[in-house]
Amino acid sequence: MQDRAGPWAGLAARLGLAAVWLYAGGAKVGDLAGSARAVNAYQLLPFDVAQVIGAMLPFVEVAVGLLLLAGLATRVSAGFSALLLMVFIAGIASAWARGLQIDCGCFGSGGQLAAGESPTYGWEIARDVGFLLLAGYLIVRPDSRFSVDRYLTR
Q1: Of 16, 31, 109, 135, which residue is most buried, by most CB within 10 angstroms?
Q2: Which residues fall in a coiled-coil region (predicted)?
Q3: Which DSSP letter does residue 71 get?
């Protein structure tokens, strides 16, 4: 049996993670070229592949955010969130290890940093690990207040 705080904690985790995805995707959806530039700056993928991923990523982030906001397929959405976050953490760690001087592009812009600017990789990884913990919580305990899932399973 679930404790009484569970659905409220789940609601907070679900809405918090939804807000992250909606903000991140929303910030990039109006500048798909900038999103593609940010993905390409990691120098992990061929240019054409980075362009396609950069153009698709904002829409994927918004879709995941909307699913979490509604509480629809919460466990699956949280699992996909966790997967995306692990890819982002690996990408940032890779850029850091290779000495790249880029903005992660997580919430828009992205690409090469201007002269004199320093990357904030440690902060970006710590932030994404925090989001990953929220996703992990929702994978284990997807039940939350005011979710479509709750009404579908009754």
Answers
A1: 135
A2: none
A3: T
**Residue found under tokens 């240019």:** 47
Number of domains in the chain: 1
Give the tens place of pLDDT for each residue, 78-90.
Answer: 999 999 999 999 9
73/79 Cα distance (integer angstroms): 10
Radius of gyration of the chain (CA): 17
Could you tell me which residues come within 8 angstroms of residue 41 by beta carbon, excluding any fewer than 6 positions away?
Answer: 95, 100, 102, 103, 105, 110, 111, 112
| Residue 107 burial (10 A CB sphere; 0-12, 13-18, 19+) | middle
User: Token match 């404790």: residue?
Assistant: 3
* pLDDT tens digits along 55-103: 999 999 999 999 999 999 999 999 999 999 999 999 999 999 999 999 9
* Whole-structure pTM value: 0.93
| Residue span of the structural domain in which 106 resides | 5-152
